[in-house]
Amino acid sequence: GARRGGACESWGGLQAVRLLRSDDRSLWRSTHAVREASLRTADACIADAQQGEAGRGEAEAGGAEEGPQWRWLRNRRFNAATNAFIQVAGHSNLFERLCESVIIKQSSTPERAAYEGISATPLGPFVPRCLCACQRGEVQLLYIEDLTARYRRPCVMDVKVGTRTFLEADAASTRRRVDLALKMLAVDPAALSEEEAAAGVTKMEYMRWREVTSSSATLGWRIEGIRRARGGAAASHYPAPKLLREPEQLEQAVGWFCEGRPAVRRAFAARLAELRAALEASRWFATHELVSSSLLLLYDGDPHGAAPPGLWMIDFAKAAPLDGALVLTHRAPWQPGNCEDGYLTGVDSLLHLLSRPDPLAGECNPSGRSRPSRRARGASQSGAERA
Fold it and tell me: Secondary structure of the chain in the HEC alphabet?
């Protein structure tokens, strides 16, 4: 339950962990036994976290020191090789692994409210399960299901959705920030002159630049990152995905991500079509703006993996309920004050791309040249491009 100080709430709490185990029972049974073990461990880890937060809250209320359970959680450290989680975009310093099936995200009240609201609607199956949430001062700690845990060799693509990726409040800010200028230069060294970089840019200028230099402004979605896993070799990442703008470039990147596997592409399209239908019927979605949110696409690079390809909504830090009786179409163009974000514009465009047959034969590489099939490469595989 909720407590003052270190408040820890569980929306189903341990029940949610057990639901994770029971809902995907057939899937988990067909994967390695460590998956089941990790879910049993999740019960204990969540319980320790809840006890630690409860002890911390009582200690703060009484002016005493925090309890040993919280100290255990706060000081916990993980082996980078065996406990690393997979991330292709976003702020890496906001995450830490609790156990194999649960990650902890430092977040905000809006994102916590979004998870709580979505989980009670038909959109619930399209977001990772938030198993519990703890408040630490101004920070919300969200204990979220690690979607990659069910895959042996996770292949991941992060897609930022919407034609508008900035808050309306950002449009009024005139403060210039050098850190945003440095972010621009990290993506494109020619984006700013030395004088412009030294003066900094406003949040609005930065976000608008991100939109027009990618496919966000025209298509309503852009690729933030792509990671493919192949056997024992190091994972490969698609180069400069944030600068992809033309439909042909995006088609090549998606083809590279799916490795020319039609079944994977069809599964993503079917899942996205289901999500679009759920969004169009959702009252929660119609009464919330969803800015800078993403879709996470996952499949198993191991051909013997049992988990099917999946697609989920993630990143709700800038989700906000609308004032009054305002209702969004999520397709209308944005004008100051109408709160339209273009989310469904992006979903429509991405679904159109995924529903088309892959025009590239075999695998494709980041240079855009199609590669011959594995069978055609035959014994010359060792000399072929390595992904």
Answer: CCCCCCCEECCCCHHHHHHHHHHCHHHHHCCCHHHHHHHHHHHHHHHHHHHHHHHHHHHHHHCCCCCHHHHHHHHCCCCHHHHCCCCCCCCHHHEEEEECCEEEEEECHHHHHHHHHHHCCCCHHHCCCEEEEEEECCEEEEEEECHHHHCCCEEEEEEEECCCCCCHHHHHCCCCEHHHHHHHHHHCCCCCCHHHHHHCECHHHHHHHHHHCCCHHHHCEEEEEEEECCCCCCCEECCCHHHCCCHHHHHHHHHHHHCCCHHHHHHHHHHHHHHHHHHHCCHHHHCEEECCEEEEEEEECCCCCCCCCEEEEECCCCEEECCCCCCCCCCCCCCCCCCCCCHHHHHHHHHHHHHCCCCCCCCECCCCCECCCHHHHHHHHHHCCCC
